[in-house]
Design a protein that fits this description.
Elements (H helix, E strand, L loop, with lengths): L2 H29 L6 H11 L5 H21 L3 H19 L12 H16 L6 H4 L9 H32 L11
Length: 186
């Protein structure tokens, strides 16, 4: 095997493993497959985490994972696919960040790893064993890489900032709730 063949095989394996796992995770959110909650259940969960409104947040998250993961596995529209998956993982990492890095502690270890791999594939490309290569890379042009990463990064940052605002508003409302105790009953 030549170095180029090894690189292409390595990229194929990385795309299939990462893309497949992301796609499966996204289908949990969208369809309730593999023990997931489907859109409605995921929407309620997203609301509880501060991603509001819940249903569009669940759809965006599920599509980023299922769509981005599927496209990564196929090696099709790789800059957009990797960027979408990375943006979804940034949103997931924001949820886990308060628990630190390690996944065993509820941290952001796994979303960070998936996000880094997805970003790396967006930048490196899918290799010759891909639908992008089979279609003459019409959806995998060099100019698409910074554009896709910038758009996905802006979307992720916007969603994460909105979540932070929602959490602060919720906390502020909870702090201002009237107490049921009468003055002097403390």
């Amino acid at each position: 095997m030549t170095c180029v063949d090894r690189r292409d095989l390595g990229l194929l394996l990385l795309r299939l493993g990462t893309g497949g796992a992301l796609a499966a995770h996204g289908t949990q959110k969208l369809f309730g497959w593999f023990g997931g909650y489907g859109v409605e259940g995921t929407a309620q969960f997203m609301e509880s985490l501060g991603y509001r409104p819940g249903k569009p947040s669940a759809l965006a998250s599920g599509l980023a994972e299922a769509g981005g993961g599927t496209l990564l596995a196929l090696g099709l529209a790789t800059p957009a696919a990797g960027s979408a998956a990375a943006a979804g993982m940034a949103g997931a990492a924001a949820i886990h960040a308060p628990h630190g890095f390690w996944g065993s502690e509820g941290g952001y270890e796994l979303p960070a790893a998936f996000g880094l791999i997805a970003t790396s594939l967006a930048v490196a490309g899918p290799g010759r064993l891909s639908l992008d290569a089979a279609t003459g890379n019409c959806l995998n042009r060099p100019w698409m890489i910074p554009l896709a990463l910038a758009a996905a990064g802006a979307a992720a940052a916007s969603a994460i900032c909105a979540r932070q605002r929602n959490l602060h508003e919720t906390q502020g409302a909870a702090d201002q709730e009237p107490t049921t105790e009468a003055p002097g009953d403390e």
